Amino acid sequence: MPDLPFIGREIERQRLNDLLKKKTASLVVIKGRRRIGKSRLIEEFARGKPFLQFSGLPPTQNITSQHQRDEFSRLLNQQTGLPEIRTGDWGKLFALLAEKTKSGRMIVLLDEISWMGDNDPTFLPKLKNAWDLYFKKNPKLIVILCGSVSSWIEKNIISSTGYFGRISEKITLHQLSLFDCNRLLNLLGFKRSPMEKLTVLSLTSGIPWYIEQINPAYSAADNIKRLCFHSDGLLVDEDLRIFHDLFGKKSPIYEKITRFLSKQNAEYQEIAEAIEYASSGALTGYLQDLLTSGYISTSPHWSLQTGKENKIKVYRLADNYLRFYYRYIQPRINKIKNNELDDIRLASLPGWSSIMGLQFENLVLNNRKLIHEQLKIDPQDIVTSNPYYQRATQKHPGCQIDYLIQTRLKTLFVCEIKFTITPLDSSIIKSVQEKIHRLVIPRGFSCVPVLIHTGEISEEIRDADYFFACINFEDLLHLS
Which residues pair with 52 in a beta bridge? Predict the structure, then answer.
């Protein structure tokens, strides 16, 4: 939404602005998942400066490398006045671009670079040659390579020997912080209660484009219905764009993985069995692609005694929209397309409270630094902090902690995360006590129970004085 002031990304903006002080040309790589705001960040950085912008065409069955070159040539003509040429050689196109950028301050963006060059094995080598022969000779030139297929960028550029020593800056964009999400909602005019804002963010998380679709004239529930349960809702078919645009012909396997993880967290072998895919380097690669793109995350098993992680990891779906899509949109897609769910009540959907709890848990984990600040934990004292999974053995029962912070001084902050509209009652104390009872705690360690919640808590909880801290996440919306 170009009319809105630019929100957040202060660190990334500073890193880009620092390049303006260099006395040599800069080659920059910016990656991040779809809708995260990469192009907007670059446009904001380039505001008021000479700027040439090129973007790859979204991959479809009929799009060829020649189409990509023709589109590059068209954009070059449109922005510089150079004749539009048809060529099968990326080297000729880069040489033309170099002629227009050989002196003076200039910023060049090659956006969705994986789309631009994936079907032509000469694209990246010729871009590298153009950098060596032409581009780097202009000390005021900044060339930015940007894309949503983070795994492609990681493999073909960042880890490529051809680009070793040439990249000046690497930036990965993550979700907006809770504070910046709240700022963006306020700028949009959505100034409803903290509970309604967290309900919105349980769907959008910190993805700027999703948040920008919120209409301030409607409640959180009505916005979700408008976006997800109306035939023309912008998020009804968003999954198609995610998988098709990012992963092309291989999209079905990525969809199987994320659909399974929308139901439960799982280890590698459990995923392989559930989607009926052999354990192999290929499956490992698919999971790595989803990790690099930010759609899933991992929580390692680790030893409380040593604080060291082991090789076994638990995979979880990190994308709140995809979980919502699999659980509520996809099973009802025909009714949605026929506008039969316009009056649906969200709270009546099966498992609604459970899903909101998982969505809220992701939101908390994405903003865990705020929890550390509230608990006054020095980041240097943290050994590790993640959801914790204790595997069941013959000696010990299994145990799952929503969020566990282990410090080097042998304190374990056992964090229970609860999203609820009605006040929490004292039964939550018994639940946490049972988890700590199951937890195998090494000698000399201390367990500190923490409650992270929405809404109000009962007087019984306060009077019991069981929790070291009760953190109302609604209060953290306003904290920078």
Answer: 108
Residue owning tokens 């202009």? 138
CATH number of 176-366: 1.10.10.10
Fold of 367-478: Trna Endonuclease; Chain: A, domain 1 (3.40.1350)
User: Beta 309-317 vs 296-302: how paired, if at all?
Assistant: antiparallel
pLDDT digit string (tens) for 205-230? Answer: 999 999 999 999 999 999 999 999 99
CATH of segment(s) 10-172:
3.40.50.300
> Average pLDDT in the 89-104 region?
97
Give ranges for CATH 3.40.50.300 in the chain. Answer: 10-172
Enumerate the CATH 1.10.10.10 domain ranges in the chain, comma separated. Answer: 176-366
> Per residue in 360-388, pLDDT tens?
999 999 999 999 999 999 999 999 999 99
